Amino acid sequence: MDRRIFLKALGVLSGSTLTAVAGKAAPIGLGSSVGVLVDTTRCMGCRTCELSCAATHDLPKPDLSNKAIFERERTTTESQWTVVNRYTTKAGKISVKKQCMHCSQPACTAACLTKAMYKTKEGPVIWRENKCMGCRYCMVSCPFDIPRFEYGKAVPRIQKCILCWDRLQQGKQPACVEKCPAKALLFGQRSELIETARKRIYSTPGKYFQQIYGEHEAGGTGWLYLSAVPFEQIGFRTDLGKTPYPEYTRTFLYSVPLVLVLGPAMLLALHKGTDSE
């Protein structure tokens, strides 16, 4: 196993072990339904998605006039749930939106001891403040390094994109999708988005790199991407494989209850055996 994958899986293992000791580990389900298709060939880098996200979730307003931000690659923060980066490639400059990927089988939810990080049946992965104990296993386990912790606050919270879960329950689209002027973002059922992406790839030969990022990576994600160039050229990890991260610890978790039952008996037998000598 790749070292980076091992370290992430270790985070899942650390959080999941306490859950497993209470009983037999439950099968890991898929649960993915809705998502967003990002067509990076259409993105203008206007960062309207950043602005709409901030306005919707009461986050600090980004300065859209600051073009210098494209000089470095940015990551999401506790006060900015989505960011747009710009990459120089053989196909020209490409702008790419980044946020929580809303995995089909999230490592963060598997690692969470209290189910504060929770995948809804509709697909979005949300964080529930009233259940969080602040262990931050979700941060360690995420292969995309997304969850952020408010270290500077007296009552810190985990912050990340929640796919506008409140808006979805009201029958609305995610704010970033609704406000995108270039229609680079498409919201819908994940299965239908994959079909749309495939049609775009095969109906316009030469326009797209023939891969849908997120269809299989780390077991699949709710956010799917199209690109004109290989995805490593625009900031994506391509070493994740197709196996969901929680699967790396499943065999161990099934064995935990057996170890806890037989372990003490074995130790007692060894003690008795050596005590008589």
Count of the domains: 1
Kindly provide the radius of gyration, computed on alpha-carbon positions and rounded to a whole number of angstroms: 21 Å
| Helix run count | 8
Distance between the termini: 45 Å
Kindly report the CATH topology: Alpha-Beta Plaits
Please provide a written account of the structure.
The protein has 277 residues and is an alpha+beta fold. The protein has a single domain, classed as Alpha-Beta Plaits, CATH 3.30.70.20. Helix content is 31%, strand content 14%. The protein contains 8 helices and 9 strands. It has helices spanning 3-20, 48-56, 107-111, 137-141, 165-169, 175-179, 190-203, 250-275; strands at residues 34-39, 83-89, 92-98, 117-119, 125-127, 148-149, 158-159, 185-189, 223-226. The strands form 4 sheets. A 3-stranded mixed β-sheet has the order 8-1-9. It has a two-stranded antiparallel sheet with strand order 2-3. A hairpin with a 5-residue loop joins β4 and β5 (125-127). The longest helix has 26 residues, at 250-275. The radius of gyration is 21 Å and the shape is globular.
